[in-house]
């Protein structure tokens, strides 16, 4: 059994324990996990062998990378798995400072893939049937014109930052509210025109916003494993209950057409290792991509229970070992339900 010292960053996410547990009890490796997070009470500290508090990669990229390299030497790290958007960008940007293998793509490719505007532009040009209707705006007048072109007030409109992360800053413009539903439901990011008008009308210019058509069910969270733009396998999680960041109940299965779409996007952006894409359905029935996450996805650990361990297989890929992929295991859909648990400090 091969012994591996694995460094995992940003282990404080809600689903970090799932990803960390995917490296336990494997037949091929004995994995010693060193976990880091900028937050002292990160939940993942309870699922690793060694935990250390790191600098925040969002605030200090170079300081974070230098800290990671000190751990590489201190713990004789064989390979690093960056688990946050900013961690991925920081490490890929300063990859020459890291003296071990890293499960991360090329910085130039990641920068494009994290740019929602660039992603939509590439979709529109190369696979327009899978591109939502959208506009990029940075002033009030363009904002007003764009929401009307999308279909407001007859249709809902999605408004989000061009460089947003993890569903942050995503809002829905709608003037169709039902009194009873509002006061019987949990709050959602759906607001009337006056809300956006009051915020934007006095701004001469602002950071790029994406004004996009509102998408319908079904929603698909898809996960792939790939290298240098070549896709090896994609599995689909159809969301039955959840939100833009998490699927709490979903069906998992293999879909060849979904895999073909993922392969086109992976090739276009030259992606490597594992990634997550979010798809949904337009009014005219097209399946379109609305979010691309070129790093390990939050729910990547789920499928280990039914036949494919994304975190572990990605580790194998980075180490040059043989992947184990059996698509026939996923022909029949299986349903999962996620729940909260806790650990004591």
From TrEMBL:
Ordered alphabetically, the record's keywords are: ATP-binding, Nucleotide-binding
Task: Indicate the segments forming the ATP-grasp domain, all copies.
Answer: 121-319
Pfam families, per this entry? Answer: ATPgrasp_Ter (PF15632)
Which spans are transmembrane here?
none
Q: Nucleotide-binding: is it a keyword of this entry?
A: yes
List, in alphabetical order, the Gene Ontology terms for molecular function in this entry. ATP binding; metal ion binding
Q: Which InterPro entries match?
A: ATP-grasp (IPR011761), ATP_grasp_subdomain_1 (IPR013815)
* Top-level taxon of origin: Bacteria
Q: What is this protein called?
A: ATP-grasp domain-containing protein
List the taxonomic lineage.
Bacteria, Pseudomonadati, Campylobacterota, Epsilonproteobacteria, Campylobacterales
